[in-house]
Every structure is written in C-alpha cells, then in structure tokens.
Amino acid sequence: MHEKDRQPERYVKIGNHLAQHRELSLTAIGLSTYIQSLPTGADVSIKALAQRFTEGETRIASALRELEAHGYLSRTRERLPSGQIVTRTVSYNNPPARRLKAAERPVQPPATAPAPARTEVPDPDPEPEPGPGPEPAPAVPEIELQARELLARLRLRDPRLVLSERDTVRLAPAAAVWLERGLTPSAVIAALTRSLPMTPIHSPAGLLAHRLRELVPPRLPAPRAAHPVPPDREIHPLRTCDGCDRAFRSPTPGHCRGCAPSADAA
C-alpha cells in the first residue's frame, strides 16, 4: 500500500530505472537521488558528501564510480580562468533515454574539407637530440598480481563472470585486501562465487565490486605477547642434592633445604 500526499514544491522525480536498478548498490541509488535534488552549482565532492552522510569517503567514492559506469554521472576536470583545476559533475536523470536518442540520431557525413593551398615547404629542421627515454611504469606489487590472476580465473568457476582486462586491473586492489588479510586465493574465489543469482549477470564487474567491498573479512587480531612469569612463580629444573641425593627444584645446583643448614655449619 502507498499513502500519497500531493507535494507542490521541494520534490524530485526519480524513475524506476534508478529506484529499482538491479546492479547499483543501495548507496549509489540513494546518492544519485540526493544529487538530483540539489540545485546546479552545489558542491558534490567526495569530502562534501562524506560530511553530509554517515558513509565514509571510500564508500561514497565507490558509489560515484558505480553511477559513472551506468551513465548516471559524469565527472570531468576543467581549468578555470584563474588557473584553478575543478571537477565538473553532471548528473543524468534518465540515461536509458539518452542512450536511445543517441542510437536513433542519424550519422552526419563528414564535411569535405577544401584542398589546402600549395605552399613552399621549408627545409626540415634538424632532428633534435634524443632525450631521456620514458619513465618506466611503476612496478605492480606481487600481491596485486596475484589478485589479478585470481579475478581472471573466476570465469573458470562461472562462465558469466568474464571480466575485461581493464576491470581486472581496476578491481585488483580490492581483491588484494582480502589476500593481505590472510585468505588464500581459493577462499577468495569461493566467497565471491557463493550463492550467485540464477538470472543472467549483466555486469559481472559491478557484482564483484559490490561483493569485494561489502564482504571483505576483518583483519586478524595481533597475537598477544606472552606475559613474563614472576620470579616467585617460576618453575625451576630438578636438581640432585649434593648431600642426600634427593631431588629438589632450584635455579642452581647445590643442597636441598634439609641439607642446606648442616652444610653451612660445616
């Protein structure tokens, strides 16, 4: 049942394609709804959103990437006349309609460019001296390489979990966190492929990103340091008394308690 009251002002329209999206997380759906309700020019940076909601910056950044992947958001870097670099964020309320219009838009034939005027070609400049070569790409940590191989092998467990190379590289840091917390690759694969939906998986990367984020195991507690034994409670090794050959415990060899006084008197 729904009990609906008329809202003459301060409301936002959200389509069911967003409210009932099967591949977006609840955080992403709520974040898109909130951004749609803001006026143009509002601050929707990750820090500003983290101050507004209880979710941390990591979860908000992940939700924004989800919205970008499904066409509900775009972010571009622009330079202002003052020289400051800012991020321009555009929120789209109906990506399916935009994709349909783009598919129906007729292809414009390329305009024929006029033939360039003939000019005299100057002598070529001498070749510049060879400069230093390009900087080598940063080395990928071994644990992240293991995570990439783990993600690539998921399709062997379920053919629906085919990832592109780009998605494999993008998700590898999140999978590496699982390995850093002591799980074996087979245990990570089992956790990511457990109880998969029976319906077709339209976005395996989105599904795995959600599971890597929400099912990450906790860190193991650090092993407790052994408490030192007080001297009065320390168990000493067995010794043989030099006087009566009886066994007794002592940190050093010598006489037992019964023979100690007589030995001192002698």
Overview of the structural elements:
The chain has 266 residues and is mainly α. A hairpin with a 6-residue loop joins β3 (238-240) and β4 (247-249). Among the domains are: 16-98, Orthogonal Bundle (Arc Repressor Mutant, subunit A); 142-195 and 203-214, no CATH class; 236-260, no CATH class. Strands 1-2 form a two-stranded antiparallel sheet. It has a two-stranded antiparallel sheet with strand order 3-4. 38% of the residues lie in helices and 8% in strands.
| The CATH top-level class label of the domain at 16-98 | Mainly Alpha
Q: What CATH architecture label of the domain at 16-98 applies?
A: Orthogonal Bundle
- β-strand percent reads 5-15%
CATH superfamily of the domain at 16-98: Winged helix-like DNA-binding domain superfamily/Winged helix DNA-binding domain
Coarse shape: elongated
What is the structural class? mainly alpha
What is the CATH topology classification name of the domain at 16-98? Answer: Arc Repressor Mutant, subunit A
Helix content: 25-40%
**Major sheet attributes:** 2 strands, antiparallel
Instruction: Figure out the total of helices.
Output: 11
Poorly predicted ranges? none
The total strand number stands at 4
Query: Strand arrangement, largest sheet?
Result: 1-2
Termini gap: 103 Å
